[in-house]
Amino acid sequence: MNNAAGAPEAASTDSIVVSALRKSYERAPGSDATYAIDGVSFDVPQGQFVTLLGPSGCGKTTTLRCVAGLEQAQEGRIEMGGQAVFDAAGKRFVRPEDRPIAMVPQSYGIWPHMKVVDNAAFPLRHGRNRRKVKDVRERAVRMLDQVGLGAMADRWATQLSGGQQQRLAFARALLCEPEVLLLDEPLSNLDAKLRAKLRQELRSFQEQFGVSALYVTHDQAEALALSDKVVVMNHGRVEQIDAPERIYDRPRSAFVADFIGSANLFAVHDVSQPRADGSVVAKTEVGALVCGSSSDGTGDGGFVCVRPENIAVRLVDDGAPEPADNEFRGTVLSSEFLGDRLELVVRSAGTTTKAFARSGFGARPGREVTLKLDPATTRYLPG
Ligand SMILES: Nc1ncnc2c1ncn2[C@@H]1O[C@H](COP(=O)(O)OP(=O)(O)OP(=O)(O)O)[C@@H](O)[C@H]1O
After folding, report:
1. What total of structural domains would you count in the chain?
2. ipTM summary value
3. 139-185: per-residue pLDDT in tens?
4. pTM above 0.90, yes or no
5. Which atom of ligand 1 is nearest to the CA of 58?
6. Looking at the record's lineage, which domain of life comes first (predicted)?
7. CA-closest residue to ligand 1 atom 29
């Protein structure tokens, strides 16, 4: 669990607690090290699905590999089930094979020259559980049954489809009875439709087996659809940790707002003190906007953030009244038909705004429109 300062506190209900992890790949003494991860802290509560999300190079894989024990950080601490598996200060490092984890790699790591059942049983024959398990084949077949592959146990692994290979990789990982599954972009090699189907399957297996999961992706839709909690990373640091709905509806920074979904960001040059209801008035290039605030503090700078689907669009007709509070006018630059809606780009006061309208809305390029922002879904993000 996180405390008020956002740092994790060790608790018996957490499968993993990562605290202040810092790693640089430049090890030479005196080198001007830049950190691949720089003070990363988060936790994975027991049975939950937690996703590390961020752009390429932000440090997701480095973090996952530190948790797996495949990389060693220079600072910080990692606990699993209440025990330290890494502690830079105490010079403790537990080897990957002795950590209660199983990893599902991007390529699934399936052996083409083996039958499905032998692939599934591989860690029981060769891993840390090797000597403990006698009824290896029986256990592997039982697990294959549970993921719907029982009838394919004696096929060659190469005869499986992409989706079946994922199930096999999942079954093999679960056979190790890990505390936590570590998944490194396991859906990235599949086409969009199959990816959407398999992510639901992945989530339902994870829930069914009650195993905790730490998942890495740069795909924000995948992160929102799958996770109990999303850890958004940027430049080696954590930007925000929250449930998917809060990440989307209440981004804490312009980076999170922009990276997750589609967001309009209006630069702010002055902002009022918070009012009794917590809202602020932010002066922007499109006028003064009343909006909710993500923080207690205010000041100059920052952005007002509003999602395209939260903007109401009206055509401006002859004799239309002047824009009211939280409204501004603009000219339609482009109007794209997306099946269920139109995506409009509207130019006003030197900036462009993206807004959605219903499919039949007659907003051709060149038409003047009024855009109305709802204070409940418009947020001020301090700079
Ligand atoms: N073995 C390595 N040696 C040197 N630098 C590395 C190494 N692995 C990663 N880095 C650097 O560390 C930073 C973080 O990389 P990392 O692979 O963790 O990011 P990522 O968020 O997983 O990116 P991607 O989504 O592209 O896989 C990057 O700047 C990367 O270039």
Report:
1. 2
2. 0.97
3. 899 989 888 899 999 999 999 988 888 889 888 988 888 889 999 98
4. no
5. 21
6. Bacteria
7. 57
